[in-house]
């Protein structure tokens, strides 16, 4: 089994072992790539890595190894030891990549170095080149985490010590093998392979080597390390031109073998590195992790023979770059500023005119804008508007947003507005169907320094408003939360299950810390209008999108306790089974696009509330 394929059972066992070994770094590689690019979608992109590797690497979905691939010269599959070399190298590189995404204190830096030394030693038992490639990733961590004036010498010392440790581990494994009468496959085989490499392009092509060495010459010294060593140095000294030409041809053949992979790497890295963003530093450090493996792997293949059995270390290094390039490609394409993407331009332009309030001319001061979306709310709106009118003052406004009603909602609100006797202002506007469309339209039409986004039946009465008014004035976003421990909420079993499912999806997919994103909202007016102009959702997920945007921008979302009024709980639910499916899809959609709400793309507006916004 260790030398090739002894039986189908052994081969299947080896395949399972290699798949398990490669699956280990797959557990944290998506997180690593996401942290490097500061974008969750870059990590999600690694779901495409196995099929991409199948296209790029001779039909294998295993990442970071050539195990199982048939060699074009010998016809044998790449054996388990060589597969272990590649897989352990990739494992070590992936751990080092993960470490580069954290700022390490001295103690943690020493701990990370110890982990890399352990992995380098394990890889070194299978091949000194693999051990050294892993060991040379540690100096990057020291260079990254130490002060600029004091990082060069420690990084060099770490490189020397860890490389020596990896070579020592290989020597120890060789000694252990020889002590149990294992055949001598140490330095002798290296010189024999180096000399055999001078016969290139034989045995792959029926063409004479530039050095004049033939396959027969290489076979003649097989088993004699000293003779192979002598002939190798003699050929290099007597014909340096032919020697150099042969090395160059083998390097080109190796690069040609990985041509498709290299093209993907170049495209992804060029797109990522040409972006003027702070991610470039993290990406550069990650690239330095893979460089030693690529240089050593390419050098080894060029020095021996460019066949699959000699590509183990190079394959691991290139695979790590493919993962980075895939994440970089997705990040570059999908995280361009919203003023660049044509879809974003069209959406924002279509909403620009909505900033003009129908209630008051530009410059009028409004303290609180209450946005009340409604659809078929004829039965509850008269009572709701009467209560709001009695609660609010002359500096406040009520914006009722009708969105697709089929009852007498419009006529009833128009009649209420015609006979309105309260100090606050009341207006009716219309939007396309959908809760999100209604909230967005009402928010864009508002002028208030503060926004209260509620429902047409005032589900919490004014318990939420009283809690909101007690918050500090600098609060950007707050929510009347049914999940607050002090909230008084008596809910049916169906709604309780629904809320728990929503919370689970929100926490797992969006990493949101807010207990309830479906409550009433208290929003800074300028920030809320800026969000509404850029928001995507048009249904139930609009409030979740708003809360997510605030969290992504680093705003603390305050949750205030509420008391659920009886009429809201006993009323007919407007939630339909189709809404559940759309909500799940919405959570996935927000998980993909959530990084667009970070400060790189847009931030809390410093525009005066009375200023006109140009689309």
What does this molecule look like?
This is Glycosyltransferase. One of its GO terms (biological process) is protein N-linked glycosylation. Residues 369-458 form the Glycosyltransferase 2-like domain. The chain crosses the membrane at residues 12-31, 82-102, 114-143, 155-177, 257-274, 286-305, 311-331. The chain is an alpha/beta fold and 615 residues long. It has helices at residues 8-26, 29-37, 40-44, 49-56, 80-100, 106-126, 128-135, 138-145, 152-179, 187-197, 215-220, 225-238, 240-257, 259-273, 279-303, 312-334, 342-351, 381-391, 409-418, 435-445, 463-469, 493-510, 525-534, 542-552, 566-570, 577-593, and strands at residues 366-374, 396-402, 425-430, 448-453, 477-481, 520-524, 557-561. It has a seven-stranded mixed sheet with strand order 3-2-1-4-6-5-7. Helix 19 (409-418) links the parallel strand 2 (396-402) and strand 3 (425-430).
């Amino acid at each position: 089994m260790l030398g090739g394929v002894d039986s189908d059972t052994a081969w299947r066992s080896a395949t399972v072992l290699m798949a398990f070994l490669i699956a280990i770094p797959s557990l944290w590689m998506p997180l690593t790539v996401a942290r490097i690019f500061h974008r969750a979608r870059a990590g999600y992109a690694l779901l495409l890595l196995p099929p991409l590797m199948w296209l790029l690497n001779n039909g294998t979905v295993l990442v970071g190894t050539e195990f199982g691939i048939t060699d074009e010269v010998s016809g044998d599959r790449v054996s388990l030891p060589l597969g272990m070399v590649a897989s352990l190298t990739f494992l070590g590189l992936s751990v080092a990549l993960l470490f580069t995404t954290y700022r390490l204190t001295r103690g943690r830096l020493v701990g990370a170095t110890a982990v890399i030394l352990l992995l380098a030693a394990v890889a070194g038992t299978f091949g000194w080149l693999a051990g050294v490639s892993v060991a040379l990733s540690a100096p990057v961590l020291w260079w990254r985490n130490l002060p600029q004036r004091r990082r060069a010498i420690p990084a060099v010392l770490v490189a020397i010590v860890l490389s020596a440790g990896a070579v020592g581990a290989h020597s120890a494994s060789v000694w252990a093998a020889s002590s149990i009468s294992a055949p001598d496959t140490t330095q002798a085989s290296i010189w024999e392979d180096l000399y055999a490499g001078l016969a290139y392009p034989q045995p792959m092509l029926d063409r004479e080597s530039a050095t004049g060495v033939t396959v027969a010459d290489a076979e003649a010294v097989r088993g004699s390390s000293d003779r192979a060593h002598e002939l190798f140095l003699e050929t290099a000294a007597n014909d340096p031109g032919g020697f150099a030409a042969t090395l160059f041809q083998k390097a080109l053949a190796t690069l040609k073998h990985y041509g498709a992979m290299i093209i993907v790497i170049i495209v992804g890295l060029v797109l990522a590195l040409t972006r003027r963003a702070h991610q470039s530093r993290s990406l550069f450090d990650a690239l330095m992790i893979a460089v030693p493996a690529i240089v050593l792997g390419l050098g080894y293949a060029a020095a021996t023979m460019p066949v699959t059995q000699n590509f183990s270390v190079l394959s691991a290094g290139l695979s790590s770059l493919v993962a980075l390039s895939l994440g970089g490609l997705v990040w570059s394409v999908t995280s361009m500023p919203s003023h660049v993407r044509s879809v974003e331009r069209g959406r924002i332009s279509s909403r620009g005119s909505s900033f003009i309030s129908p209630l008051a001319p530009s410059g009028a001061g409004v303290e609180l804008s209450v946005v009340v979306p409604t659809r078929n709310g004829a039965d509850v709106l008269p009572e709701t508007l009467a209560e709001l009118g009695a609660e609010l003052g002359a500096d406040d406004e009520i914006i009722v947003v009708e969105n697709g009603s089929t009852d007498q909602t419009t006529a009833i609100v128009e009649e209420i507005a015609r006979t309105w006797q309260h100090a606050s202002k009341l207006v009716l506007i219309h939007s396309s169907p959908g809760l999100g469309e209604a909230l967005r339209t009402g928010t864009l039409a508002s002028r208030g320094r503060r926004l209260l986004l509620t429902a047409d039946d005032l589900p919490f009465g004014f318990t939420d408003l009283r809690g909101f008014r007690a918050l500090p004035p600098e609060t950007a976003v707050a929510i009347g939360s049914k999940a607050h421990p002090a909230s008084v909420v008596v809910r049916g079993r169906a709604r309780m299950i629904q809320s728990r499912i929503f919370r689970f999806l929100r926490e797992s997919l969006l990493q949101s810390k807010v207990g309830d994103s479906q409550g009433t909202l208290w929003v800074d007016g300028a920030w809320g209008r800026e969000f509404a102009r850029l928001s995507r959702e048009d249904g139930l997920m609009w409030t979740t999108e708003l809360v997510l945007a605030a969290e992504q921008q680093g705003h603390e979302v305050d949750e205030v306790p509420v008391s659920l009024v009886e009429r809201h709980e006993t009323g007919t639910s407007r939630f339909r089974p189709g809404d559940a499916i759309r909500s799940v899809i919405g959570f996935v959609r927000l998980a993909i696009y959530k990084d667009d709400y970070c400060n790189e793309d847009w931030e809390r507006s410093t525009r005066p509330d009375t200023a006109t916004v140009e689309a």
